[in-house]
């Protein structure tokens, strides 16, 4: 007779596993947003009317809500990635001392934030 572990939601009782599953669930939204962008490319290839229809869908309430949900999910995914990064990389030594994981996390988040804001400013300048 072999032991079969019951699947009673044991992972729901551990905060580590809950964060892990939330981080993994963000992949679904990344995939859906990727499909949205591919649909935009297909509409662009099908002509101006199709592309304008795609843009109209993006501006509709459901399209805006979907994009806002994706933005929130992407922000969580980015934050969790930078939190994990110091745990997975070799120790960084600065002046003979190990750099604190929080310094790595906040530096990564700061650079990502700066790059995102720079792209937004560039987009606004070019339009």
Brief characterization of the structure:
With about 130 residues, the protein is mainly alpha-helical. It contains four helices and two strands; from the N terminus they run αααββα. It is about 75% helix and about 5% strand.
Describe the overall structure.
- This protein has one domain (10-126): Up-down Bundle (3 helical TM bundles of succinate and fumarate reductases).
- Helix 1 (15-45) packs antiparallel against helix 2, helix 1 packs across helix 3 and helix 3 runs antiparallel to helix 4 (101-126).
- Helix content is 76%, strand content 3%.
- By secondary structure, the protein is mainly alpha-helical.
- The chain has a two-stranded antiparallel ribbon with strand order 1-2.
- The protein has helices at 15-45, 48-59, 61-88, 101-126; strands at 93-94, 97-98.
- The radius of gyration is 21 Å and the shape is flat.
- It has four helices and two strands; from the N terminus they run H-H-H-E-E-H.
CATH class: Mainly Alpha
CATH superfamily, please?
Answer: Fumarate reductase/succinate dehydrogenase, transmembrane subunit
Rg over C-alpha atoms, rounded to the nearest angstrom: 21 Å
Gross geometry: flat
Number of domains: 1
List how many beta strands DSSP finds. 2
Q: Kindly state the percentage of residues in helix.
A: over 70%
Low-confidence stretches: none
The largest β sheet comes out as: 2 strands, antiparallel
| Euclidean distance between termini CA atoms | 70 Å
Backbone structural class:
mainly alpha
Order of helices and strands: HHHEEH
């Amino acid at each position: 007779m072999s032991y079969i572990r019951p699947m009673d939601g044991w992972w729901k009782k551990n905060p580590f596993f809950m964060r892990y599953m939330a981080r993994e669930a963000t992949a679904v939204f990344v995939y859906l947003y990727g499909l949205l962008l591919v649909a935009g490319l297909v509409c662009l290839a099908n002509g101006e009317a199709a592309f304008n229809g795609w843009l109209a869908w993006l501006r509709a309430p459901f399209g805006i809500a979907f994009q806002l949900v994706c933005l929130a999910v992407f922000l969580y995914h980015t934050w969790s990635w930078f939190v994990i990064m110091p745990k997975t990389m070799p120790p960084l030594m600065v002046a003979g001392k190990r750099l604190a994981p929080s310094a790595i996390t906040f530096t990564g988040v700061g650079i990502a934030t700066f790059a995102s804001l720079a792209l937004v400013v560039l987009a606004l300048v070019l339009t």
